[in-house]
Amino acid sequence: MRIIKIENQSGKSKNIFNSYGSTTTTLTKIKNIVVALDGSKSSSNALDYAIYLARQNQTTLFGIYVIPMFSINYKKPSSALAKMFVDNGKKVLMEAKIRCAKNGVLFKEKMANGNEGFMVISYAKKRKASIIVMGSRGRSNVRELFLGSVSHYVVHKSPIPVLVVK
């Protein structure tokens, strides 16, 4: 039997029992939330959940948009393709910032370049995130067939809990 201790806001713990193992885990209040954004519908849904969690826990929401590693440096885009990715990232992050502001949530954005899954996990670690929220499907189903799903990678590689939203 597994005992999970859930700590409420006053610091008191409540035990929850389940049959998944014999380890004790302590879950504390969510302090920082990282949401992975890419402009897709499921990414937008993930942002909705992340905003809800941030409001409930009165915490900051950190949004990350990752430009795939095959693109050029996002700080100085030199090709039309790279510029398209950078412009889309700026648009997605600005829309997220506006949605957060309308809901009274502090939002801090990050644009990065590289392997999407790895960058999401790295950013979450850097921000000492309590949870990563992300969509189940990204921009391209074809891309997932060849490279594997970013959400699948993050779920299996992240030491931080991950909430995947459809």
From TrEMBL:
* Domain UspA as annotated: residue spans: 30-166
Q: Which InterPro entries match?
A: Rossmann-like_a/b/a_fold (IPR014729), Universal_stress_UspA (IPR006015), UspA (IPR006016)
Instruction: Write down what this protein is called.
Output: Universal stress protein
